[in-house]
Amino acid sequence: MRLRRPRAELAPFVEHLWYLDEPLPPGRDRTLPTGAAQLVVNLAADRLNWYEGPDLAVRRGVGGAGVCAPLARPIGVDTADQARTAGVVFRPGGVVAFGSVPAAALTDPVTPLDVLWGRDGGSVRGRVLTAATPGERLDVLERVLLARLRAAGGPGPDGAVAYAVAALDRGAAVHAVAARIDASASTLQRRFRAAVGLSPKRFGRVRRLQRVLRAATVTEPGGPAPDWAEVAARHGYFDQAHLINDFRALTGLTPARYLPRSAVEHNHVPLS
To answer: Is 141:88 a contact under the CB 8 Å cutoff?
Structure first.
């Protein structure tokens, strides 16, 4: 996978751009929530598929370019649908800078880009495909984002929301964040959901899960298991049972069943 940091003008809103064009192990993956939205373009087919439902067995799909919502639950993806793709990972709250739709309105796992950006969104996949090399294709995505950002002409990131994102990412309590920005809980909830797409509490839970996954990834069957009681204590859970319940609620797995595709792909867990 090729990763690229965005230009300075995009950096307050975009974490990185990425390009993937390589064979992947066949099968389906359970993808875990991160708290951030992504723009994804399937370059192999004009279709973005995902799987949901209790066993991640119900197939759904939209056209070949869309925005993946920030979720607090897993979805399933087929690795065959990922093998030739490009995308953008937005910073939490960053996606709203490129269109007028609040992040809280992204209620489906994937929303077609033409629904969000009209004809401009509908042309993105074709424009990316006209470029010859991976670098040029990421150049196209950057130009699309820059044009939309400049056309929107909005203010920079909401400072209060940016502070709340950073504080919750570090494990701060929601009430402490609200007090720090001198806002009521309801005001923080409204502004945060509109920008990020999750409530502050859910976002904090998802980001804590991400800290746990980075700290406790085990990539080989039979490898040493993490000390989940120690992990729970280190990351602010009441006890190991609290960690297990939260882990299951956000991933559909118990910690003991968590075995990611690789150490660098800790949000992709093969379903088989």
So the answer is: yes
Q: Where are the domains of the chain?
A: 2-152, 159-270
State the DSSP H helix or E strand holding residue 30, giving kind and residue range, or none if neither. Answer: strand 28-31
Give the model's pLDDT for residue 153.
79
Q: Which three-class secondary structure state does DSSP give residue 178?
A: helix
> Nearest-CA neighbor of 168 among 145, 140, 195?
195
Question: What does the pLDDT read at residue 158?
Answer: 84
CA–CA separation, 258 vs 247, rounded Å?
A: 10
| Residue 176 three-state SS | helix
Nearest CA-CA partner of 145 in 87, 208, 231, 70: 87
d(CA 126, CA 39): 15
Check whether domain 159-270 has CATH 2.60.120.700, yes or no = no
pTM passes above 0.85: yes
Report residue 180 CA to chain centroid gap.
26
Residue with tokens 């700290």: 215
Q: Would you state the pLDDT for residue 223?
A: 64
Q: Which residues of the chain have pLDDT under 70?
A: 155, 217-223
